[in-house]
Amino acid sequence: PAASPAADAHDGRHPASVDAMVLASAPPPGTPIPSSVRAVAGERSTRVLWRNELGGLAIAIDGDDPLVVKWSPPDGPALAGETERMRWLAARHPAPVVRDHRVVDDGELLVTEALPGEGAASTRWLRAPETAVRAIAEGLRRLHALPVEGCPWSWLPADRIRSARAAGGAVPAELEDAPSVDRLVVGHGDACAPNTLLDETGGFLATVDVGRLGLADRWSDLAVASMSLEWNYGPGLEPRFWEAYGVAPDAERVAYYRALWDAAD
């Protein structure tokens, strides 16, 4: 929408941006495949890739036409907003191609073409953190190089604060005083390490999980991406991230956008 991410709510479901706030992890053994996903898979084999705290799943469908299905339960986050953003982004930047989106009896589906790579927080790349960090920085640099004209969504501080408060969050008043915009970009909105895919050689492959994509100061992504490095890989990698992206850290903006992330996201 032309307005804030809060406008993504539909059919009484949560906004699409909500699922970016939810932690995802390896699924417990025996996690059942929803019937709607089995219907998409047909006779093809399936693998549950991750499960989030609200019960949402990402499921790989193998075979000659491999797919990835993001499934959200009936009371989980809506996926319509992310579908719209992914379609917009995939026409301009490496991202999964959307095949289908639908609300079904057992929830909601976002079906995309599978890509030949792994997330930056997969087991393989956790063992090669410097390679992963370079790819994360490259992906953000390429995303932030997109023209901002025509991007219909906003993820600026005022939008985030308004959305958080509308959902019942208590955002400190001092965060309303945001730093001036250093560089307006198409921002990812959840630039944590797992949302970058790497190819077989360790290069940047694609950007995923774009439910909050919108116009933002580049530091809103950079602050969170750099913060997520220690969560995933341990300490000491921030200097390599800044070097690979090509900017010196801006302490004021990093501190502000990390505080806003903690309060509003």
Descriptive keywords:
6-stranded antiparallel β-sheet, alpha+beta, 265 residues, disordered N terminus, 8 helices, 32% helix, 3-stranded antiparallel β-sheet
Summarize the structure in short.
By secondary structure, the protein is α+β, with helices and mostly antiparallel strands. It contains eight helices and eleven strands. The chain is globular.
Record the SSE blueprint:
Elements: E1 24-25, H1 35-41, E2 46-52, E3 57-61, E4 67-72, H2 80-90, E5 98-104, E6 107-113, E7 118-119, H3 123-126, H4 129-144, H5 157-166, E8 184-187, E9 196-198, E10 204-207, E11 214-217, H6 218-233, H7 238-245, H8 251-264
Antiparallel strand pairs: 1-2, 2-3, 3-4, 4-6, 5-6, 7-9, 8-11, 9-10
Helix pairs in contact: 4-6, 4-7, 6-8
Description:
With 265 residues, this protein is an alpha+beta fold. Helices cover 32% and strands 19% of the residues. The longest helix is centred in the middle third of the chain and has 16 residues. It has a six-stranded antiparallel beta sheet with strand order 1-2-3-4-6-5, sandwiched between helices. The chain has a three-stranded antiparallel beta sheet with strand order 7-9-10, covered by helices on one side. Strands 8-11 form a two-stranded antiparallel sheet.
